[in-house]
Every structure is written in C-alpha cells, then in structure tokens.
C-alpha cells in the first residue's frame, strides 16, 4: 500500500546528481528552496514509478495535490512546512505544482504511455519538466517573461534527453515516450516498446527526436543570454550536463540503447569549473 497523506514528506537530502552539483552555487535560502522543490518532484515521481496498483498511485498523487493546496493556505502538514515558506518567499505558483502532479498521473494510469501523439508528449514534457523550470526560475529571481521562456525550452530539452537516455529502463515498465508521429514518419508502425526498440529504423526516429531536443537547447541558451549571467549559472550547468549526455548518446548509437551513457569525471569537472560550481 502507498502512504497516507499524513505521511507525505520531502526527502531529507536530494539524490546525488547533476542537479545537486548545479545548485551548490546558489545562496543558502535559494539552495534550500530548490532542494525542497526537487524533493517534492522526487516524492511524486516515486509514487508514479512505485509498485502500487494504479488506483492507489492516483489516489496518493491526489493526496499530494491536497497537501500542496493546504501549503498555499498556510495549513500544510508539518513535514511540508519548509515548502510552505518557499511558496511565500518566492511566489511559487500553485498551478506549477499541480502540473507536476498531473504529469505523474499520466505515468500512473493503468495503461502505460506508449508512443503518444507529439502533442501529448509535449504536454507531458511541460508538466514533468518545464513546470519544474517555472518553479525554479522564480527562485532564481528571473523576470517573468525571460524566466518562462527559459523554463519552456530548457525543460523540454532536458526531458527529451532523459527519454532518449532511458529507452531501455522505460521499456521495462511498458513505457515508450518516442512520439507516434516520428515513428510513423520513419516506417515504424508498432507501438509495443520492445518491438520499437529492436526495429531497424529506431535510429532514424531517435535522431529526429534528438534534433528537436537540440533545437530546444539552442533556444534555451538564447533565452539565458537575456538574463543575469550569475543567476543563470545553475541553469547553464544543468544544460551543459544534459547536452553533453545528448552528444554522447548520438555517438554511442541508438541500437545500443541498453548501454548506459555517463559523463566522465574529467568532463563533469570541466563543466563545474566552467560554470563556477567549484
């Protein structure tokens, strides 16, 4: 069984990741806010990817929505007290938290996402990634127009890279996020994950999606140029890490999808030095 709303809480520490590396440059109050936003995202993602029955997962996610709403009213559960403070301090938007939960609900349905239409994939990316970006840019203190544009493009760039990186892992859960439109364009009619991953035209579909991700990276970098360079250091670092992963995925080849792609320590060190993270 999944936990009751009363036990909902944020992870005490974020998992070791490019996220924690990128956020270390922030002042302590902003770093704490980003830690809790990331903790919220991890918590609801763990629900969606957990072992419970779909109806249990959906119910647990709706309880998270109720707890978030309570935070905005100042009556949130004690384990979420710090999140309530961040909401007030940085003007975080309720609809962005709701969007993240809605994205997790897409993953928690009885029928896994398999080769969705392009519009559905874009909506999913907006909910699970760009919405997190919209919360983040408020913490960074960016002007609304510039911040929202950056969140739109960088969120999609990161999530599409995740999708291309995690093809094998997602297939084990019965999921396939490659959009049906691209699959049909390259002659793949199947939508069953393993059938698609072993199709000879898989590489063409992945290249097309990687091109879309690359365009979002380009537009994200353009949006960053309109913002304070210091405020952009965490976002630039995240973008650099994920873009490096996309480059390595292309070099590895798409039919070796079960072979993990990781950045070397020297590459991570170079990114950290370049963006003033150490």
Characterize the structure shown:
This protein is mostly helical and 278 residues long. The protein has two domains: 26-111; 112-278, Farnesyl Diphosphate Synthase (Orthogonal Bundle), CATH 1.10.600.10. Helix content is 67%, strand content 0%. The protein contains 13 helices and no strands. α7 runs antiparallel to α11 (202-224). Mean pLDDT is 90; it is low at 1-7.
Offer a concise description of the structure:
By secondary structure, this protein is an all-alpha fold. Helix content is 67%, strand content 0%.
Number of strands: 0
Q: Calculate the terminal CA-CA distance, rounded to whole Å.
A: 42 Å
Shape: globular
Q: Quickly give the structural class.
A: mainly alpha
For the biggest sheet, the summary is:
none
CATH topology of the largest domain: Farnesyl Diphosphate Synthase
Sequence stretches where pLDDT stays below 50 over 5 or more residues: 1-7
> How much β-strand is present in the residues?
under 5%
Annotated CATH architecture of the largest domain: Orthogonal Bundle
CATH top level of the largest domain is Mainly Alpha
Annotation field: number of helices? 13
Q: How many domains make up the 3D coordinates?
A: 2
- Helical proportion, percent range: 55-70%
Q: Which radius of gyration do the C-alpha atoms yield?
A: 19 Å
Element order: H for helix, E for strand:
HHHHHHHHHHHHH
In CATH, the homologous superfamily of the largest domain goes by the name: Farnesyl Diphosphate Synthase
The residue-averaged pLDDT reads 90
